[in-house]
Queue: 4 jobs
Job 1
Amino acid sequence: MWNIINFEVFRALKKKSFWIASVAPLVLILVVIGIEYLSTNNAATNAAQQAQAFSATAKIGEFDDSGLISQQLVAAQHITIEPSKDAGVTAVKSGELDAFFYYPKDPNVMNVEVYAADTGISFSPPYNAAATQLLRQSVINEVSTATKNNQAVQILETSPAVTAITYKNGAETEGIMGAIAPGIFVVAFVLLYVLLASFMISSTAGEKENRTAEMLLTSIKARTLITGKIVSIFILGLVQLATLAVPLLAVLLLFPHQIGLPAGITLGSIPLNFVPILFGALFFATGLLLFTALLVGFGAMFPSATEASRFIGVVIISAFLPIYAFQSVVNSPHTLIVTIFTYFPLTAPMTALIRNAVGSFSIGEALGSLAVIIAGAIVAVWFAVRAFRYGSMEYGRRVGIKELLR
Amino acid sequence: MREIAIAKNREYTCTMAAQSSVPAVDIQSFAMRFGPKEVVKDLSFTVNQGEVFGLLGANGAGKTTTIRTLLSLLEPTSGTLLVNGKRYTPAMAATVGYLPEERGLYRNEPVFDTMVYFGVMHGLSRSDAKKRVLLYLERVGLGDKTHERLIGLSNGQQQKIQLGVTILHEPSLMILDEPTEALDPVNRSLLMSIINEQRTNGATVILVTHRMEEVEQLCDRILLLKDGIRALYGTVDEVKNTFGTTVIALAYSGTLPTNEKLYAITKQLPHYAELAWREGVTADEILRSLARAPDLHLTSFDVRRPTLNEIFLTLYK
C-alpha cells in the first residue's frame, strides 16, 4: 500500500494545479483580511452603530474602578451603577441585567470585563463594543478638559482589551469562544471537501481513463488500492490544510494587534475543551472518509471524471445542505429537519460538525450521529471497493448500482 | 539486464523443476454467463510450463473473458481456473506479466516513475525496479526519455514502455492479450524477440490473438474459441492435420483446364489457383496432367497444408 500512497501523493505534489488549488484559498483569505484591515473605519462604524442600538435597548449596569467613566454619559444612556463588581455579575446571572461592564483601575493594563446574557453565536457581540464605546467616549470628554492625561491618550490610541463572560440560565457559557476550536473542523471539512472533490473522483476515474485498472487489479487487491488512494487523499488534504493554516497562524502570531481575530479574540484566549475537539476530529475524519469513499466509488462507475462530475452533484450538495439550514441547526437543534440532518448519513457529518461546534449536542446525540457516519463510511468504502473491482474494467460505459450489487 | 536475466533464469529453472508436474494454467469446465448471455461454455484446457500457447478466436469469442477470469478479475459462473495449481490472487503478481487488451499508462506522469511504480507493484524492491527500468530504457533506445512524461512520447515509444511494464519483473507466466494490436513493425519485432527471449528463459507465454501468422511463428499449441466453445485444441500440426485439407497452390499464366476426375478448383484468381484433389489421386498425376495442358504455363506448383488463417476462416464461415 505504501507504493500506492507514495506514488499518488508525490504525483499530486509535483503538479502545479495542486499547489494553485492549495494556495488560492489562502490568497483569497489574505485578500479579505487585507480589505477588512483597510476598511477598519467601516467596521468600527458598524460596531459603534450596533453598540448604540444595544445600549438603547438593553438593561446595562456598570462599576468603575478607573474613575474615567463619565457619569453624564452613564445617566444619558440609562446605565445603572452597581454597588460592586460582584453585585453586577449576580444581576446578569439572575437576568436582572442584560450586561454589566466592569472598568478596572487601569484599562491600559487590565482588561475591561463584560458580563452578559448569552444571546447566541456572534462574532461581534454588541456588549463588547458598547463597553469600549462608553469608555472611549468618556475619555474623549476627559481629554478635552485635561489634554495632558497620558492614560486617556493611550486608551484612545490603543483600544483597551475586553474580556467577555456570558451566562445562560445562571450558568456561564463560552459563547463564540467555545465554538472556535471545534469550529475549525467545520472550516477544514468544507475546505478539504471543496478542494479535493475533483481529486477524489479522478483518483479512480483516472485509472479507467488511463486504462490502468486491469493491470493494477492483477497486482493488488481492490481493497488495498482503494485504501491506499483514500489515505493519499487524506495526506494531500493535510498538506493543503497546512498550506492554509501555517501562513495564517504566522500572520496572527506576528501581527496580533494589526490583524486580529474578530471581536478582539486572541489565540491564547481560545478555550481548548477536550470533548468537543475530540468529537470534532472524529466527525471530520469519518465524514471526510464517507464522502471520499463515495466519490472514489462514483469515479469508478463512470467512464471519465468529467462524466462522473455531472452525475454526483447530489452527493456533493448534500454534504453542504445543513449550511443552508444553518440558523435552524444552530438555534433550533431539536426540530424535525435538524434531527433528520443529524442522522441521515449524507447530511450527518456537516450537521454534527456544526452542532458540536456550537455546543448543541448531548453526548448521546453526538455518539448516535457518529455511529451513523461511521456506518455510512464503512458502506461507502465497501461500495468504492466494489465499484472499482467491477466498474473499472467497463470502459466507455457507466456501471449501474444494480450491477455492482449483484 | 543480462545479469538480472541470468539470475532470474536460475530461479525459473528451480521453480520449473519443482512445478514441472503442475500445468502453468489449468482451466476445467469453465463457463461464464453475463445475465442471459453465456459467453463461455464448458471450456477446458491446460497450458504446460515453458510453452507458448495461442488462445485464438474472433472478437467476442470469449478470449478476454477467459483471461480476466483466470486472473480473478471476474468470477466464473462455474468451473476452476488455476495458475500454477492455485486460484490466482494479486499476491502472485510477481510471477505473472499481464498485458491487457485495454491497456494504457499514466499519460501525465514521467516514464521512470510509472515504470518503477508498476515494478514495485509486481514485487520488485524499489531499488531493483529503478535499476531494471534504467537498463530496459537503455535497451529499447529510450534512455534519454527517462524523466519525460508519457504524453510527450510517440505512440511507438509508449508501446515500448507498456511492454517494459509487463516484463520488467521477468515473470514466469506472460499473458499477452492482443499484444501486437496497433504495434508498428519495429515494436512488433521487439515484442517477438522479447517473447522468444522469455521462452528461452523458461517462461510460459499465453498469446491471445487473432493474428494467425504470429501464432504459426511462435506457438507450440493453440486453442481456438468460437462463440465461447472450444473449436480447436492441440499443437499447430495436430490442428492442421485434423481440420485442414492439403491443397495444391498454382501460379500460372494462360488457361487452367478443369478435370473433374483429378481435382476441383477451390479458388481461382487470374494467375493463381488452389486445387483440391480427388480421393485416390496423387499430386504427381495432377502435375503431369497440367503439364500436358496446351494453353497453360505453370510458374509454381506447391503442395501445402492449409494455413491457420485458412482454417480459422473456414471455421468462421
Note: The CA atoms of residues 118 and 168 of chain A lie 5 Å apart.
Job 2
Amino acid sequence: MNVLTYLIPISLILGGAGLAGFIYTLRSRQYEDPDGDSRRILSGEWDDKPRAD
Amino acid sequence: MTALTTNGPASCPGCLAAPAEGIDAPLPDAKLALSLPTIHCQACISKVEKSLNAHPSVRAARVNLTRKRVMIDAAPDVSAQELANLVMDAGFEAHELDTAALSQTQTDAAGRDILMRLAVAGFAAMNVMLLSVAVWSGATDTTRDMFHWISAAITLPALAFSAQPFFRNAWAALRAKRLNMDVPITLAIVLAVATSLWETGLSGKHAYFDAALTLTFFLLAGRWLDARARSAARSAAEELTALEVPRAWRVEHGTPTEVAVSALRIGDKILVRPGARAPVDGLIVEGTSEVDRSALTGETMPALRGTGDAMSAGEVNLTGPLTLQATAVGVDTSLHQLAALVAVAESGRSRYTSLADRAAKLYAPGVHILSALAFLGWLIWSGDMRISLNIAAAVLIITCPCALGLAVPAVTTAASGRLFGKGLLVKSATALERLAEVDTVVFDKTGTVTLGTPSVTNWNDLDAAQKALAYALAQGSSHPLSMAIVKAAQAEGISPAPLIQQTEQPGYGTKARFRDTDVRLGRPEWVGVSAQNAGLCTALDLGNGENPMVITFEDSPRPGAADLMDALKAQGMKVILLSGDRTASVAAVAGQLGMDEYAAEVLPKEKVDFVQDLTNQGRRVLMVGDGLNDTGALAAAHVSISPAQALDAARAASDIVLLGQDLSPIADALATARQATKRINENFTIATVYNVVAVPLAVAGLATPLIAALAMSTSSLTVSLNALRIRGRT
C-alpha cells in the first residue's frame, strides 16, 4: 500500500494542473467565440505565421 | 459611440493644447461594434474581416460568430455607419451597435464566474470519485478512513468555493421567508458533508463526499447553461436598444445646437432634418415637408405638412428641414402615451409561471417533508440519531433536483441556440413555452409583413426616355419614392437624362430643365394630375404638353413572407393581418399572401382590444409587429416577436427579436418551441421515474453512496442527451 503515498499526490497534482490550465484559458477569454474558433481553422489566412498581435 | 466634434483652427498654440470644454476627449482608439445577423460560416468571417481591414482607419477587426457581431478597433475619425456600409457592400447585413451600452452589461462576467466554479467542482468531484471507487471496490479499515479524510480535505474547500451561488440564493430566500430550489440543494449539500464528516470521524463505512460534489457539479452545469443562453440574448437585446441615440437639434439664437432629448422644454424650437425622427410633439413654425407616420399609425402614404401643422414625436421627416415649436415633451408626448399602453397590457403576462417554476413549487416542500419524515420515522423505529441522520441525508441527495435543474436549462439552451442560428433572439426565459401554445398569429403590415420601403409597380409602362428622365429627377431627392425609382433604374442599368437647374421643393417634388422644357417629378396634385386611385404614387411631367405619367408604388412583402404564411397554415394556425393602413393596401397584401382575415385602419388601442378579444375567446395569440402602434398589442399577446429594425419600445415589449430581413424563421421558431416543450416534459417524466425508483431505496436505508452516484449521473446524463436531440434536426 506504500504506492499510495506517491500515487495520490500525483493524481492530485495532475488534476490540479488541468484545473490551472482551464482557469488560464478562461481568464484569457478563449471561450468567447466557440463557433467562430471552430471554423477559423478552415481559413487559409495566417497559415504561414501567426498574426502580429 | 461618443460624438466627436472637430475643433476649428485655434488662434494660438495654447488654445490648441487646452481641451475644449464640454467636448468629450477623443478616445485614442475607438472600439466599434456591428451586428451581423446573416453570417454563418468561415467564408463569411474572412470576407467581413477582409473588407474591414482594407479600410485605412481600421486597425483590427475580429468577427465573433457565436454572437454574430464584429468588434472593430479603429481610428476615431471613422464612423460605425461608414464601416457598416463597407460590410453591406461585401454582401452582409450589418447594423451599428452602441459599445457604451455593450460594456455596461456584466452578463459575461456572471457566466465566467459560474464556469470557474463549475471547473473547481468538476476537478474536486473527479478526484474524490477516484478515491471513492477505491472504497467501493473494497478498501477497508485504515485505508478507507484515510481515503475518506483525503476526500474531506478536497471536498470542504472546493464546496466552500463552488457551491456559493446556492448558499447565497438559499439564504436570500430564507430571509424573505420563502422556499426556492436552492434551499433543498443547500440542505442536501450541507447535511451530506456534515454526516459524512461525522461518519468518517467514527470510522463509518459510508461517506457522501463524492455525491455532494457531483451534485454541485451537475447543478452548476445547469446554471451555466441557463446563464449562457440568457446573457447572449440579453446583451444582444441591449445592443439593439442602443441603436437610437436620443439627441435633438435645438435652435438657439438662430443656430442649431445638439442637445439631449431629455433637455428639451415646451416652447423650444427644434430643427428636424430630413431623415430624422421628431423627438417631441410640436407645431411646425418653419418649413414644408412630407412626413412618414408609419411608426405611429402604420400608414405607408407620407403626409404633407407645412407651417402651422402639428407633428407628433416618432414621425419621420422625409424631404425638407422642419422647425418645430415643442408643445409636449418627455412623458407627455403621443409616443409615450402609446408606450403607456404597454404597461397596462403587460401585467397580464407576468402571471404566466414557467414549467420549471411550477415544478419547483411542488418540489421544494415535498423534498423537505419527505426527508423529515424519513428522519423521524427512523428515529422512532431505531432510536439511533446517527442512522436517522444518514438516511435523511441520503433521501435529500437522491431527491436533489439534478435532473430537474438540468432538464429545463439544457432544453432551452439547445432550442435558443438553434433559433439564434436561424436569426431569432429569444429574450424572455419563458418565451419558448408560451410560443408552443400559440394557435393564432396576428401580423402588423407596414414594416413587419412588408419591408416598409416602397418599390415601383408600373416601371415597364414607361419608355426608355421617360425612365431616364424619372431616374435623373429622382436622384436629386432622398424621398423614399424617389429612392425606389433610383433603385428600379439602377437595376436596369439605365443612364440618367442630362438635367440642369435641378431643385427640390420640399413636400412637393423635384423640378429641372431638360432640353429647354420644364420637367417635374412629385406629388400628383403639384404636377397637375388628379390621383384618383389614391395609392402610393408620384407623377412625372415630361414638359412636352402631354398628360403627366403616373408612377405607382407598393410596399413589397418581406422575403419569406409567403413561405411563412404557407408554413403557418400547414401547422393549422389562424393568420390575421392587422394594420393602421388604408383598407385597399391591407386587402392587397392579405390577398397576395393568402391570409385568413384582415382588419384595416385599426387604431393602437383597437389593436390591443383585438388581441384581448382573441385571448378571451380562449385563443393563444402570437403578435408580430414593429411599430409604436403595435407595442400595446405586442404586450397584450401571449407571446410576441418584433423585427430588429423595429423601434425601441416595440422591441422592449416583445419576447423574441427577428434579426434578419427574412420572415420564414418564425415558422421554425414555432416548431422548435413545440419540440422544446415536449422535451422539457419528457425530461420531467424521466426525473420523476428516477425519483419513484430511487426514493423508496433511500427511505428504506438501502441507498449506498455507490447507488446514489450511479442514479444521479444516469438521470442527469439522460436528460442532457434528451435535450440535445433538439439541436440535431435542421
Note: Residues 1-28 of chain B have pLDDT under 50 and may be disordered.
Job 3
Amino acid sequence: MADLLRIGATALSTYRSALNAVGENVANSQTPGYSRRIVSLAEVGTGLNGARSASASVQFNGVSVESIQRNWQERLARTAWDSGSRLGAAAVKQTWLQAIETRLNEESAAIGASLSAVFAGADRLAANPGDRTLRVQWLGRIDSLTASFRQTHAGLRDVEQGIGDALAYSVDRANAALVQLGSINSALKVAPHGSALRASLEDARDGQINALTEELDADIVLGPQGEVSARHGSAVMIDAAGARTLRTINHSDGTRAVAAINAADIVDITPAAGKIAGHLAADATAKSQLSAINNLALSVASRFNSWSAAGINQSGVSGSPLFQGADAASLTALITNPDQLAFARAGQAANANLQALSASRGSWALEEGWTGISTLAASQSAAASVEHGAADTLHQSNLSALDSVTGVDLDQEAAELLRLQLAYNAAARIVRVAQETINEVIQIL
Amino acid sequence: MINGTFFRGQQVVRHMQRQAAQIDRAQQQIATTKKRIRPSDDPVGYAQSIRISRRESDNNAWGANLHALAADGAHAETAMISISSALQRARELIVRGSNDTHSTSDRAAIATEIESLIPVIEDARATRNSTGDLVFSPLPLAVPVGNDQQLSATMQSTIIFDTVSIAAGQASISSILRDAGAALRTADSAARRTLLAMGLDQVGAADRHVVAMRSAQGIIEQRIDERIEQLAASKLIDTEEKSRIDGADIGETVIQQQSYQLAQQATQATFARSWSRTLFDLLG
C-alpha cells in the first residue's frame, strides 16, 4: 500500500506542476514574446531522472515531470528576427521619407509657386515696367521666394535633426539589448536544462534578440547553452567575452555612421536592415535633398543677380544684385527700393531686361529644378511605403508562423486544464484508496 | 474561438486600424474633394499638377497683360479716329479755301482752322493710358503674352505720325497740315492754287496712311483678342486636366467609404463575438 500511496503522491505532484504550467500559459497568454510551456511527463525509473528503478517485477514507481520546455522553433524565430529587421528599416525609412516629402510638398514649401509668381510678375511688369505698385508687388514676391527657401531649409534641417536623435535612441536601445543579453548569457550557463527558469531565460533572450535585430541586422548564433553571440560583418557585438558598445559616429562631412567599440578597437558597421539602417538611409536622403535645395537657392541667386546686372534701373545705373546668401537658409533679398529694379537695357525698350528674363526662364530651368526635387521626394516616399507594406506583410506572415507554435490558445489551455484536472483528481483518488486500504488493514490488526 | 492567440488578437486589431485609416482617408478625400492626400499617392500626377499650377500663374499674368494691351489698343483706335476726322475736316477746308472768291481774311481764317487741327494730331500722339504711359511710343513695349510670344498694343508712333508717303518723300501729318495752312496764306493766286492742289494730295495721302494704320491697328487688336480667347481655352483645359489629376470622384469615394465602414463593422462584430467567449466560460 505504501507503493500505491507513493505512486499517487508522485502523480499528484506531477499533475500539480502540469496544472501550474497551464496556469502560467493562461497568465501569460497576452504577454508579448511568451512561448507556450509544455510539460513532458515520464514514468519514474524509465526516464532520464531514473533515481528509482524497478527492483521487482511487481513494483511500480509512478510519474514525474521530465522537463518544462518552450514550444518554440529556432528556424521560425530566426525568420521572424530577419523579417523584423527588414521591417524596422522599412518602417523608419517610410516615416522619415514621409517627413521629407511633407517638407518638400509644394503646398507647404511653395518654392515652385513663389518662383512662378516671380516670373509671372516679371511678365506682368513687362506690360508696364514703370508701374510702382507692380514693382513693389514684385519685390514682395522676391521676398516670399527667399522666405520659402528659408522655411523649406529649416524644415529639412528639423527632419535631419530628428533622424539624428532617433538614430541615437536606436543605438541606445541596441546597447541596452546587448547589455541584457550579456546578463542572460551568464544566467543561461547555470540554468538547469528542462527547468522553468531556463524557459523564462530563453523567452527573455529571444525578446532581447528581437529588440537588437529590430535595430540592427545582426548575425545571431545560439550556443550549446542557449547563449547568444552576435556580430555584424567583422564587428563583434556580443560573444563569450561580453557585450560591446555601439556608438554613433558623426563624420566631419556631416554624414553619420555606427561603429562597434571594443576598447581601442573601433569597427564601422554598415547595416543593411534594422531601424539603424533605415535612419542612416533616411539621413543620407535628407542631406541629399538639403544639398539640392541649397544648390537651387544658389542658382536662383546667381541667375537673377547676373540678370539684374545686365539691366539698368530707372536712374540709368546698372542693376545691383537681387539676392545674397551662401545657401537656402541665408538667402535674402537685397533690393528694397522699387526704383532700383533694373528692368530696362541701355538704348532699348523700357522692358528689355524683363523680356530677357522671360526668354531665359526656360533655359534656367529653376522651376523644373524644384519640381524635380519635390517629385523625387514624393517618389522616394511612395517607394518607401511600398517597401514598408511588403516588409510588413512578410513579417506578419513570419510572426504568424512562429505564433502557430509559440502562441497560447485559451481554448487549448482550457482543454488541457480539463484533462490534467481529471488526471489530478484520479491521482487524489488513488491516494485516498491507498489511505482507506491502509486504515482497513490497521483496523484488522 | 479559433486559434485565439495574443498575436491573432493583435492581427484583428491591426486589420481594424487599417480599415479605420481607409475610412479616414476617404473622409479626407470627400472633405477636400482631392483624391491625392499626399504627393506620394501619385508622384507623376503631383508633378503634372505643379506644372499646371505654373501655367495657371503664367496665364493669369499673360491674361492681365492682354487686357492692358486691349485697353491701350482701344485708346489707340479712338485717337486714330480723331486723326481721321481731323484730316477729313482739313480736306474740306482746303477744298473750300481753293475757291478764289474768298477774301484774304477768309482764307486766313480757314488757314487758322486747318492749323488748329495740328494740336488734335499732337494730342492724339500724346494719348496716355490709365497708368499714365504713352499709348503711341517710339519704342512700343513688346509685352509677354505666352511662351516666347510677345505683342505690342500699337505700332511705333513715328510710323503712324511721321511717315506719310508724299511726292517729295515722307512727311509727318502735322507738317502736312502746317504746309496746307501756309498754302492758304499764299498771296499769289496761281502759286496758291498749285500749293493747295499739292496740299490736298498730301492730306489725302495722310488720310489714306491713317486708314492703313487703323487697319494695321485692327489686326493687332484682332491678334490680342485671339490670344485672349486662346488663353481662356487654355485655362479651361488646365482646369479640366487638374480636376482629372487631383479631383476625387465624390460618388465613387462615398461608396468606397461605405464599403470600408461595412467591412469595419463586420470585422468588429465578428471579433466581438468570437473573442467574447472561450472554453473557460463553459467550465463554470
Note: Chain B is about 75% helix and 5% strand.
Job 4
Amino acid sequence: MSIRDRACVVGVFEHPTRKADNISLAQLHAEVARGALADAGLAKDDVDGYYCAGDAPGLGGLSMADFMGLRLRHIDTTETGGSSYVVHVAHAAEAIAAGRCNVALITLAGRPRAEGMATGTAPRSYGPTSPDVPFEAPFGPTVVNQYAMAAMRHMHEFGTTSEQLAWIKVAASHHAQHNPHAMLREVVTVADVVGSPMISDPLHRLDCCVISDGGGAVIMARPEIAKSLKRPRVTLRGAGEAVKHQMGGQVDLTYTGARWSGPAAFESAGVTPADIKYVSIYDSFTITVLITLEDLGFCKKGDGGRFVSDGNLIAGTGRLPFNTDGGGLCNNHPANRGGMTKVIEAVRQLRGEAHPAVQVKNCDLALAHGTGGSLGTRHASATVIMERS
Amino acid sequence: MAAARSIPAPTPTPETAPFWEAAAKGKLLVKFCTACGKPHHYPRGICPFCNSDRTEWRESAGRGTIYSFSVMRRASPPYVLAYVTLEEGVTMMTNLVDCDFDALRIGQPVHVVFSPTDGGPPVPNFTPR
C-alpha cells in the first residue's frame, strides 16, 4: 500500500519552554497536543488515532489517552528513541491510508533539564535483561563517547576534520540567532567550536546538542480533512525506516541506517536528493548530521566534511539549508529526543512560516530525518519527505 | 596514565555464563556458529547470521587491533571507550587500559587483559602490544 499523498500534516506545535520546572510530564504532553490542535483548527474529539513513545509517562499511550480524555480507535506506541516521532508520521499515514483513523495525534515531551539528567556524559543502562548490557555497560559507553567513536572512525577513513564538523554547529547557530526560543542564540565560529572544551575525543562541547525540556506535537489527517482546514497544506510524499546495529560483531561506524531509510523514502516519494529544498537532520552531535547527509545521498560517502564546510548548510547562502530553527545543536532537544522538532521545522518551511531570515524560497519539498539510539551501537533511522500541496 | 576506573559488574545470563567463567580464568571466548562458520559477538545461543542454534565457544588468541576509540576526557578519571577487532573476526566494545591515552591510534595492535569489576566477573579490556 502506498502512503504517497494519502495523509497530510495539519497541525504542529513546539512547546516554547526549555526548562519545565513547574510543569509535569503529562501536562507537557497535553499542552503540546492542545497547541497542535489549535494550530490545525481541530478539536480534541476529532482525534481518533494517537502515537507516543518511551518518553510518555506510565503505560504510555494508555496513560496519556486517559489523561487527555482521548477516544481512540487506533493506537501505536512504536519506540525507536529520538526517531520515534518521524516513524510515527509514516505509521500514521499508513493508518490513515488504511482507514484505521482519520486524525492522528503524535506527542513528545520531557524534562531532562529540570530533572538534572547528565544526558550525554553519564552511562545509561537499560538493565541486565537487555542482552547487550553485560557486554557494554562495564566499559562506560555514554551517548557522547559512542558518537565520538563514529566521528573518530570517519576521520580515520575519510580525513574528516574537527573544523569541518564545526561548520555544522556554525550553521545551526546562524539560524538560532533568529529563534527567540532557542537555548543558544549566539552565532559561533569554527574557532569557537574547536576551542570549546573536549568532552570525548574528537567531540567538543559545541559539537554536542543542548539539553532541554519541552516537547512537540504533530497532527495528521486525511487529505479531505486537510482541505477543509484553513492552514497551508503539507502532504506526506514518502517515508523510509531502518534499524542498524552491530551486526553480530561486524561493526561499521562509517554509516547509519539512513543508508537504507533514505533511498526507501526517495523511492516512495518519487524524487531525488537534488529535488529537496530544505532538510531537517537529526543533530544530536555534529557528526550525526555529517554521516546522515552522506547516507541520504546529498553527497558521496566520505565527502561529508567538504559538503558541510564554508556555510553550505546556512539558509540564504548555502546549497542545502538545514535545521533553520537552530536544531538540537542550538535550539531544542526536548526529552533528549530530536525527531519531533525535525518534523515541525520542516512543516514550518513548507508552510512558509519559518522565520523570514531563514525561510527557504519556494520551499515545496522538504525532508526530515530522525536518528534514535546510538550511532555507536544500535539505532533506528527514519526519513520522511513532505510536500507543500 | 589515569587511575583505574571503577567498573560495574556484568550480569551473566544462562547463555553467557561460560564467557564470564572463562573470563575469571583469564580466557577470552568467542562464539562460533558451526552451521554457517561465522563468529559473532556479543555471544548468543542462536547465531545472528543464520539463526542456527549450533553455536560453540572457542578461545580467542586475545589479539586484535583498535577499530575506533574515544578518550572520555570529561569523566573523572578519564577512560577510553573502544571497539577492538579480534583476529577471530569480531569487533567488541571494550576499554583501552594501562597506556598513554594520547598515543593511541586506530589500527594499533592490542592484546586482552582482564580487569576486576565491582563484585562480578572480570571484563576483557585491551592494552597496546
Note: Chain B has one domain: 17-128.
